Request: fold
Amino acid sequence: MYEDHFHLQQTPFSIAPDPAFLYLSEGHREALAHLTYGFSHGGFVLITGEVGTGKTTLLRNLIKQTPEDLDVAFILNPRLTVHELLETLCDELGVAHPQGSRLSVKQYIDALNRHLLATHQSGRGTVVIIDEAQNLSPAVLEQIRLLTNLETDKRKLLRIILIGQPELAELLERTDLRQLAQRITARYHLQGLGREDTYAYVVHRLARAGGNPNLFTRAALRRLYRISGGIPRIVNLVADRAMLGAYAEGRQRVSARLVNRAAAEVSGRERRLGRWLAGGAAAALATGAASAYLLLPAPPATEPAALEPPARSAPAAAQPSASSAQHAPNLTEETDVPRAEPQPATAADSPALTAEAAAPQTVQIRPPDVPAYQTQRQAYRAVLERWGVDMDGWAQVQVPCNFAPSAGLQCLSRTGSWSDIRRLNLPVVLELWGQESVPYYAAVTRLDTDTLDLSLAGEQYTVTPADLQDAWFGSYVVLWQMPPNYAGTMKRGDRHPSVLWLREQLQRLGVADARGSGDPALFDAALQNAVLDFQRDEQLLTDGVVGPATWIRLADRVDLPAPALDGPT
Reply:
């Protein structure tokens, strides 16, 4: 209903477990690593989590990346008897069994055993995934345990992944299920998102839907986190309804008031959505400026559409320019955060950050009094200087990332949290927002547990992540060093000189035997297995594909020269 209003390509907050919208927080990375472990090892893997934490979405993402030599039986309805479970397994795996008659448990087991032995001899593996496993009866769980007795002298023929709510872990504590509990080789409990990850999750989904990632004001994000507790499904429900409310009122951004109203509607405290739509229609008629804004021509591709500025608790640095005032709708509906009237800029206001040296916790983030493109170039200059690269000879380059490859570097745009940046451990360029209709940029050149060094408009500041909470919505660019003969993302079947370098580095790390048996420049099965082991060890997305995240982590592990965020500047 509201996609055209917000210029979206698709609905960003559907509760369907769409892998395309997967956001990997620290906890989700860990859960995914455990799931991947279950794909490659025998026995049981147990993943638990509260309702709506993203277990099924993780699972569907993993299934999309199923190795070619692995058969998967996916059971979505675990309310089965023992006979129904075995029949379902046979059907899922394509095991031939007599039809139209009731087989005994032994007949099903024998058929499964013959099938598993045949697939094992052909070099294939088999994994059974049971979602909502808290609904399994003790008798069915015991039968599942017995299935793991199907084995050769050296390995289990069946790998089993159980996914369920916390009650599943409680169920497995029963005395009569202790043998099953003892066979669990890996277990993980998935928590809700933290505050930073909740903010980044919202931004990520909006960006994936092709819309403005800063559509929710900072106050709205705070309310969304408090209401949802970081549970992604609740975030999706409330955010979707809040965007519908913004559409009904003809607004271009979602405020905290709209989030509160959406939460009341979703929880049933409002009678009907129709009341909201009816009231919103009247409000939309009264807000001619906001409605007229939709008819204005789109701004150039280099500038985002006009935005309502994030809620601020301190005076803004400057009045909006005349040009931005023409395009920005008059949206000032925040109710839970005091807002000061903007004050005209003065010469004393030119520093972007103002704070007493003895009290860095009071630093206020404000856009500098220079054009946005200059802040971008200066931010990239600061990052490139950390890499030992001088941009002075490239004044004609309009896009700094077009210059980076000439220095052996690549740009990677990401949406995430401070924990993601700490994990990368490389200088980054942040996209920041003030009250203007375009972002400004700053470089993070050092980051420790409490503070960070920020380069903004050529000035250097020491601030805390909290000082940026009203300006940074999770978007950043990291520059990383290309390996020799870099040719982009690589996967099994590719042949290139950079494959040889990749193979040598993995052997050097002792991750796995990556020697292969043929062409050393061919990305073969042995190298793919080595990459999978490396990704698993480093808690990366375990897909066997060597993309930027894997290149970055590998460069760090083999100690290629790079400017670490936690090192000297």
